[in-house]
Amino acid sequence: MENGQALRRITDFYIDLGTANTLVYIKGSGLVINEPTVLTVQQKTSKFFEHSAFGKNAKEMLGKTPLSMHSIRPLKEGVISDFEQACKLVEFFMKNIGQKGALRKARSIISLPCQVTRHEKQAIRDLGKSLGVGGLDLITEPMAAAIGSGFDVLESKGKMVVDIGGGTSETAIISLGGIVSSQAERVGGVGLDEAIIDHLKFKYHFYIGEQTAENLKILVGSALADSEDVRECEIGGIDLKTGLPRKMVVTSVMIFPPINQFVKKIISLVSKALEECLPEISGDLSEDGIFLTGGGSLLRKLPERISKEIGIKVARTTHPLYSVSAGGAKVLEDHKLFDRLQAG
Q: Whole-model pTM?
């Protein structure tokens, strides 16, 4: 996290508030915050809690806190599930920008999933109010991802973006500055980590924590069952038969079942979007293909698996982790571009 005097005179900002990570871009200063969406609270009395850690520091505590401390993810499945703690977390991230009085003059943009309820959208607006900002605009994450990937979203040629985040996955077909159609499934990288934990627990009687599951997914996980490319990793956990800690070598084959279920849901999401696609746009997609973005798109061999099953070329965007935040930054810097986008 960056702090400094220069930020105090810059007020306009964009927040990519995700289930797994939160990124903040300040106009004129660039990307200044990239932190896990996690905080830790410590119980002092039956009614009083003290916040102990935020972001990276809090994530390092996952699975390691004593009984009096709790790690909290205030977003679930792409939306705010704990409003009070979400406010505390964002306020902590924003504290180096300036005083509340300065933020009252700020213009802010926050991204959110395409398919959210009225109440979930209102929670985002209420978050802006809690920060004391002036004007608050909203942009959908797939639209921001398309802009951040360098696509001309204002042209008539249709484009399809699949944004696989920590808590939700969405497909959006974009043309003429708006979303022609979209599909969403509340499944993402965090849920996949939990599925890997459950699989090892029940299949191999081996219990691991969230951070270990995430590392395992990154190091050996694959969307394709390839007998010629089996990877392995030694990890630590608890042997549930003895109750004692031990090491275990886990291969890509061992964790393929939960990953396969995850990938099937993504493919189903893409298939539904293609089934509802207008004929003219279908032609555009068959020519240019489908673009994956978001942290979940980094799963090894995911583009190849989707392409193999749906028969259309699939590619990741250049910087999948930063596509949404890069798009939010562009519309923050270029108000005319934001005004030309069709409201979602």
A: 0.88
Query: How would you class 117 by CB atoms within 10 Å of its CB: exposed for 0-12, middle for 13-18, buried for 19 or more?
Result: exposed
**Which architecture characterizes domain 5-37+73-143+323-340 according to CATH?**
2-Layer Sandwich (3.30)
Which helix (H) or strand (E) element contains residue 331?
A: helix 323-333
Tens place of pLDDT per residue across the chain (344 aa): 444 444 444 468 899 999 999 999 988 888 889 999 999 998 766 666 788 899 999 999 988 888 888 899 999 988 899 999 999 999 888 875 554 455 666 788 999 998 888 999 999 999 888 888 778 899 999 999 999 999 999 999 999 999 999 999 999 999 999 999 999 999 999 999 999 999 999 999 999 999 999 999 999 999 999 878 899 999 999 999 999 999 999 999 999 999 999 999 999 999 999 998 888 899 999 999 999 999 999 999 999 999 999 999 999 999 999 999 999 999 999 888 988 997 65
The CATH number fitting domain 148-187+264-316, selected from 3.40.50.970, 3.30.420.40, 3.40.1190.10, 3.10.620.30: 3.30.420.40
Tell me the domain boundaries of the chain. Answer: 5-37+73-143+323-340, 148-187+264-316, 189-258
Contact 53, 61 (CB under 8 A): yes
Residue 67 CA to residue 80 CA, distance in Å, equals 25
